[in-house]
Amino acid sequence: MPIAPTRNTTSLLILVAIALFGLIVGYFYYSQALQDQVIPISPIDISADDGLAKFKDLKLDFSVLDGLAFKALRIFGESPVQPGSTGRADPFAPF
To answer: What secondary structure, in 3-state letters, does 6-38 show?
Structure first.
């Protein structure tokens, strides 16, 4: 009489077969899916002029600080803020 495999051996064999099947299908799916999405990237044109030369004669416009809307701003509350006592001494203590 041939010896029939036990239930644990059969279920382990089925789990291994499902995992192996999933790995094989996943490998073929991702190897084919990624080939269609490859976009050729052409190098950008690099100009010979210096990119920092445009900052040589940089003029900043601070006229917004002279406007009436900026001068009308006021500080509300205390500045700097003084922290008070907050929270519990033992955060893990029961209520």
So the answer is: CHHHHHHHHHHHHHHHHHHHHHHHHHHHHHHCC
